[in-house]
Design goal:
A hairpin with a 4-residue loop joins strand 9 and strand 10. Helix 17 packs parallel to helix 19. With about 650 residues, this protein is of the alpha+beta class. Helices cover about 40% and strands about 15% of the residues. The chain has 25 helices and 18 strands.
């Protein structure tokens, strides 16, 4: 009896202590600015990444399976084994009719190369070859191609579209937007398509070390504490307990699971929180603490979707809205490729909620013909508005999906944040500015941004505000920026991009000394942002600081020997100094890389005249006329020759 009373007392005492600890824990969480993850490696500066090969030692089967998934195959070296492309002569040729450029991918031994060329009649009047370093994409939908020049990554202008079996311009390079070999691969891009890289601080697109595929720790967090615990014999039965040394997404809440997946599968307009980068989000954290992700909302066609919008589409579904228990891993095993997952797995996921045969009202003959496959009817494949030539499973689960209406006019309704229901006006304004700059340069979006900035309390008529500066910069109202920043000191600006925009505004207004001061500030923060460097060199040149300008342009070419504008600038400096041989070399190199530079062509014609190479002048001037048929300077030079 005494023993029973003692046990009863102890149970109550334990319950009381547990209750007190829970209350103290809740009190601590409420008093802290940000709720901490219960997983030990998250928010722990001592936790380190260990790499997939370390994970493989204990989880060999999972590793081998995962490496066959789209994530495991997301990024790789440009090898014949990695490529899914067809290189037969008839298919491996792309013509950009607007830029009048051809692209021919081919193998030179084991090296994948892309030849860019132009034909004038039967003559090849331009030729450039670039070696591909990496292939992006598993091959289920596309293979895109990355050029690596001394660590600076750029996307190649052509992509292989696997489903259609065709080469074409890369997404975003169509309709006159072909930036050729100059589109930068920055952190936002690479941190979705690959494991976290070793990024060169102070750059936009320079990397010291690139991983090959999304790795284990992107979803499970840094693994060093987990590895150390196992090596010390700390083994936990995960069937009954949670191992807090590593994140297991299955043990997260539904919201946290979706936060993890939508870091990459909610591709839209990402607005970073102040002080955050694209490498800061870790599994088990709230995504909105690192960034807000906006998607454009349209009416008029419910099939108007972006390719990597899986989470957005899922959240539109009644299945998600009404179940309160649906996440990406309800249907998907991230360790197993969709290609190797039996359809029954997905159908059974549907049946966890729709177990009764009476749930399906479809004609039985059709059900038999479709083999009772819920996905075929309720999640049909759909095209995307951002990636041509692909069809992906639409994760907007509907009773009766509408057939795509090719004639439907999709009306833009606004930008919607899909990872936070309560977004302040300034963040919304930043999203509209980003959307305008990157996707849709329509005046409406800038006007919307200004309206939201004013709502957020920003003063657009007096004083300095980084978001206001950016909006006026995109409006090309440089005089307004100068008036807002006349009293601002460069060292007061903490953001390199803002310093750059202010510096360019002063440059456009002919205030070179002020321009140089702000551009120097930008370069001090981002030494390896070569566009910033070139703008600074241009300001030096305009201010007649020739020696300083030359140093900047030479630094750029030492970093990236394919930086076109630096060749043109050095050619101009050499031409003004009377060094004809150097001028000719630099200008010719610039034109070899990009034949469509009007002023460089004119300068080269002048240099040919100075070096008594009259036979080369007319072809150069006629090439310039192709770019600007009404150019008075070119016409005058041709008249002088005649």
């Amino acid at each position: 009896m005494i023993i029973e009373l003692y046990l009863t007392f102890m149970k109550k005492a334990i319950l009381l202590v547990t209750f007190i600890l829970v209350c103290l824990s809740l009190l601590y969480r409420c008093s802290s600015d940000e709720e901490k993850s219960p997983f030990l490696a998250i928010d722990n500066p001592e936790a380190q990444y260990v790499g997939m090969e370390t994970c493989k030692n204990c989880h060999t089967g999972i590793y081998e399976s995962f490496m066959q998934t789209g994530m495991g195959q997301s990024w790789g070296l440009a090898t014949k084994q990695k490529s899914s492309a067809d290189f037969s002569n008839a298919k491996a040729l792309v013509y950009d009719s607007i830029k009048n450029l051809y692209y021919k991918p081919y193998w030179d031994g084991d090296s994948l190369c892309i030849l860019e060329y132009r034909l004038t009649g039967n003559d090849t009047t331009h030729k450039r070859i670039e070696k591909v370093s990496y292939i992006v994409g598993s091959g289920q939908h596309t293979n895109s191609h990355i050029i690596n020049i001394n660590g600076y990554l750029h996307q190649a202008p052509i992509t292989f579209y696997t489903q259609k079996g065709k080469w074409d311009l890369a997404p975003g390079f169509e309709k006159g937007k072909n930036s050729r070999f100059d589109r930068k691969i920055e952190l936002e891009c690479i941190t979705c398509h690959n494991g976290y890289p070793e990024f060169v601080a102070g750059s936009l697109n320079k990397f010291n070390n690139i991983k090959l595929g999304i790795d284990c720790e992107r979803c499970h967090g840094p693994g060093s504490l987990h590895v150390s615990a196992k090596q010390n014999g700390d083994i936990i039965d995960t069937a009954t307990s949670i191992d807090y040394t590593i994140v297991n997404p299955k043990k997260l809440s539904i919201e946290a699971q979706n936060n993890l997946c939508q870091r990459c599968h909610l591709q839209g307009i990402a607005v970073l929180k102040e002080g955050k980068s694209f490498m800061d989000f870790l599994p088990s954290q709230e995504l909105k603490k690192s960034m807000h992700v906006f998607m454009p909302s349209y009416s008029g066609d419910e099939n108007h979707m972006i390719m990597a919008s899986h989470v957005e589409r899922m959240k539109m579904s009644d299945c998600f809205v009404n179940s309160n228990k649906m996440s990406c891993i309800t249907c998907h095993n991230p360790h197993v490729s969709v290609k190797f997952t039996a359809q029954e797995v997905f159908i059974n996921a549907c049946k966890t909620c729709h177990a009764s045969k009476d749930d399906c009202k479809e004609n039985m003959a059709l059900r038999v013909a479709k083999q009772d496959n819920c996905i075929t009817c309720h999640m049909p494949k759909n095209g995307s508005i951002d990636i041509p030539h692909v069809a992906v499973t639409d994760h907007y689960i509907r009773r009766k999906p509408k057939v795509e209406n090719k004639e439907a006019i999709a009306k833009f309704l606004g930008l919607v944040c899909y990872n936070d229901d309560q977004v302040d006006a300034r963040t919304q304004a930043q999203a509209y500015v980003e959307f305008y700059e990157r996707y849709e340069p329509n005046k409406f979006f800038l006007d919307s941004a200004f309206t939201l900035l004013i709502k957020a309390g920003a003063d657009t008529s007096d004083g300095y505000d980084a978001d206001v500066i950016r909006a006026f910069f995109l409006r090309e109202d440089y005089q307004k920026i100068v008036s807002l920043c006349n009293k601002v000191k460069p060292n007061e600006i903490k953001n390199a991009w803002t310093s750059y925009r202010i510096g360019e505004a002063f440059l456009k207004q002919g205030q070179y000394a002020r321009s140089i001061a702000f551009l120097q500030s930008a370069v001090a923060s981002k030494k390896y942002a070569l566009d910033f460097q070139h703008k600074l060199g241009t300001a030096y040149l305009e201010n007649n600081q020739i020696g300083e300008a030359k140093k900047v342009f030479e630094f750029i070419l030492n970093e990236n020997p394919k930086y076109i504008a630096a060749f043109g600038s050095l050619g101009y400096i050499a031409m003004q100094a009377g060094d004809i041989n150097k001028a000719k070399y630099y200008l010719q190199q610039s034109i070899l890389l990009d034949p469509d530079q009007l002023q460089v062509l004119i300068n080269l014609a002048v240099v040919y005249h100075q070096s008594n190479q009259g036979n080369l002048i007319k072809p150069i001037l006629y090439q310039a006329l192709q770019l600007d048929s009404q150019n008075a300077q070119v016409k005058a030079m041709l008249r002088d020759m005649e």
